[in-house]
Amino acid sequence: MDRTVIAYVIYLAVSVGLTVWVARTLSHNGRIFLADVLHGDEKLADAVNHLLVVGFYLVNLGFVALYLSGDETITDTRQIFEALSTKLGVVLLVLGVMHLGNVYVLNRIRRRGVMEREQVPPVPPQGWIAPTVGR
């Protein structure tokens, strides 16, 4: 078998495995975060979580597929490791950026919800006082 094909098979196996692992980790741990962001609405949190995971898979697996081909021909074992380290390193960076992007957006949504909750006074106002003009 051609060494380039061996490198492709290893790259695909590791990249898809990493993508699935990261997506499952984000899904499992992100559900709790989403429930908080969405004020305890469990059904909505599950739906948003599922949509985020599907989008994560589509973007990352699409990138893995597009990044599969290489210009160089692999002739020895050393070149297999060099090609794999470059390709897998880029895939890991993309997975990390996607994860940080998701967390950033969800944190912004969560902060907005916390600010909205803080604007409502804990006790309704007792009365109204007219402003005084020019003391």
Describe this structure in words.
The chain is built from three helices and no strands. It is mainly α and 135 residues long. It has helices at 3-37, 42-66, 77-119. The model has no long low-confidence stretch (mean pLDDT 83).
List keywords for this structure.
single chain, 135 residues, 3 helices, mainly alpha
Specify the overall morphology. elongated
Q: Beta-strand level of the residues, as a percent range? A: under 5%
**Gyration radius over CA:** 24 Å
Number of strands: 0
Structural class, by secondary structure, is: mainly alpha
Distance between the termini: 92 Å
What average pLDDT do the residues reach? 83
* Biggest sheet descriptor: none
Helix content: over 70%
Series of secondary-structure elements, N-terminal to C-terminal = HHH
Helix segment count? 3
Show unreliable segments. none
Question: What's the helix and strand layout?
Answer:
Elements: H1 3-37, H2 42-66, H3 77-119
Helix pairs in contact: 1-2, 1-3, 2-3
Provide a short characterization of the protein structure.
By secondary structure, the protein is mainly alpha-helical. It has helices spanning 3-37, 42-66, 77-119.
